[in-house]
């Protein structure tokens, strides 16, 4: 077998094994704040890097990133939370001047396929309010603890001494 062909086959297998695929990108309003959810298919345990950006007036503006430097106007207003297969951008005090095409780009360390990305057009008047269930997903530890402890609370017979 030709060594070049062998290397090409190995790289193809590595690309398929390590790729992070962005599956869905959605946006909603949480009060006056914007939340952009970037869901992805996890095919590796390698560390994940991300970049959220907005394109407006034919210019890309980096909002929050581990890949490149965020722009000053977003640094105090934007943060990102990461959960299993979900990276969420939270942009405080969202106004019509923040409207545009939002992009989520993901890349896994040692991923040879390059960045995976999706974009969504965000217009304030067309955004829906974030669903109650999705708000609970952001901090599920207390909810999980409560649900798991309900059978224990029912089984305990509280007797006053």
Would you write up a description of this structure?
The structure is a single chain. This protein is of the alpha+beta class and 161 residues long. The protein has a domain at 21-129: Immunoglobulin-like (Sandwich), CATH 2.60.40. Helices cover 25% and strands 39% of the residues. It contains 4 helices and 8 strands, in the order H-E-E-E-E-H-E-E-E-E-H-H. The chain has helices spanning 3-18, 72-75, 132-137, 141-155, and strands spanning 21-30, 33-41, 48-56, 59-65, 78-83, 86-91, 100-108, 116-122. The longest helix has 16 residues, at 3-18. Mean pLDDT is 78; it is low at 4-18 and 133-142.
Shape field: globular
* Distance separating the two termini: 82 Å
Spans of at least 5 consecutive residues with low confidence? 4-18, 133-142
Report the major sheet: 4 strands, antiparallel
Total number of helical segments? 4
Percent of residues in helices comes to 25-40%
The share of residues in extended strands comes to 35-45%
String of helices and strands: HEEEEHEEEEHH
